[in-house]
Amino acid sequence: MLYIKKAAQLITLQGHSDTPAIKEQMKNLYVIENGSVLVQENKILAVGKDEDIRQQFHEVIDKAEVIKAENKIVTPGLIDPHTHLVYAGSREKEYVMRLQGKTYMDIMNEGGGIHATTRATQESSFEQLYMETAKRLDVFLLNGVTTVEIKSGYGLSLEHELKQLKVAKQLNEDHAVDIVSTFMGAHAVSPMFKTNPDLFVDQIIQEMIPAVAESRIAEFNDVFCEKGVFTPEQSRRILEAGKQFGLIPKIHADEIEPYGGAELAVEVGAISADHLLNASERGIKMMAEKGVIGVLLPGTAFFLMAKFAPARKMIDSGIPIALSTDANPGSSPTFSLQFIMNLGCLQMGMTPEETITATTINAAHAIGRAKEIGSLEPGKKADIAIFNVPNYLFLSYQYGMNHIDTVIKSGVLVVK
Ligand code: NIG
Ligand code: FE
């Protein structure tokens, strides 16, 4: 048994395992001062004021391994609900090109961007991808993240998409970080289909989706719905086809230009619409009405020097918001969800409380895991982060640094 003792602030985020936190709920972290947590095997046994926990569990506490949390804060392990972590190569030269004025889309249309990473990933073996991705997951864990969603989408053929998804599956078994997988065959149009993109859409629908579903290697199905990539109609076909095979829709929506992505997310019943930098008024209203989660990725706006998603307006309209790194080698090469929290506050008008809700319980909802993780409540998985800060404001206040002190994953001390 683990006894996490007397945190200055225990951030529990209780009470939102069934539906995501919205509006004012996103500001309420259910903080317990001088709070303690008891962990039994891989689950949380009890959460409460230290004096209450000691009184109620005094017999077992004496034998527990004590982790002192005085002057520190304790939160649920952070959750990143949108990454592209299985890839080979890097794109620092494109970064320099963008610094000189080229746009992300220009680079992609000239065969770079996602296509460059696709070539490198196709040429890479399972073992190489496994090793490189494992290292990235190590960094996530050291930064307090205990669950990540990972998308395929640098394969763009059945063989290589499955290779990426198998890497994620194997790492889910081998690595401390839990991985939730998303098929994203529709990340870019394979250059082989440049003159007839609809044929590539057909291939995704007829060949890739059935095979991915049959091997039970992904839960979600994502599409890059963007001018010059997949149209809303193509995206709809792909997401509807996935639904026939039990794959839950997600969508890269309105990232570079307004394109009806938010509206489409609602129409196909997506669990989340991600990016939303240029979502329309109508799309925002529709998402709020249906409770579609907005997964915002301010690292991407930061790194592409674009305007940020209107998070304040979205939260005030009632959209449940989650935050993510979008970790990928092109548009957001960071593994720091703590930095994303800072951007959430300074660039998107979120409060520090909202950024914590957005990287814990709402992030869990965005990947369908809110019953198991995302809050500190008895019965939930013991995924716990301890930060070496006196109060939770420091997480987004002292920025660009890693405040992690200790990480517990499924009841095991993995970072200390
Ligand atoms: O979420 N927008 C499309 N996909 C990624 C970028 C992937 C890449 O550039 O390699 C994104 O921004
Ligand atoms: Fe993405």
Automatic annotation (TrEMBL):
User: What is its biological role?
Assistant: Catalyzes the hydrolytic cleavage of the carbon-nitrogen bond in imidazolone-5-propanoate to yield N-formimidoyl-L-glutamate. It is the third step in the universal histidine degradation pathway.
Which InterPro entries does the entry link to? Amidohydro-rel (IPR006680), HutI (IPR005920), Metal-dep_hydrolase_composite (IPR011059), Metal_Hydrolase (IPR032466)
One GO biological-process annotation of the entry reads: L-histidine catabolic process to glutamate and formate
What are the protein's UniProt keywords? Cytoplasm, Histidine metabolism, Hydrolase, Iron, Metal-binding, Zinc
| Cofactor comment text | Binds 1 zinc or iron ion per subunit.
**What protein is this chain from?**
Imidazolonepropionase
Give the EC class as a word: hydrolase
Protein origin, superkingdom: Bacteria
Residues involved in Zn(2+) binding? H82, H84, H252, D326
The UniProt record lists the Amidohydrolase-related domain at 73-414
Q: Which family does it belong to?
A: Belongs to the metallo-dependent hydrolases superfamily. HutI family.
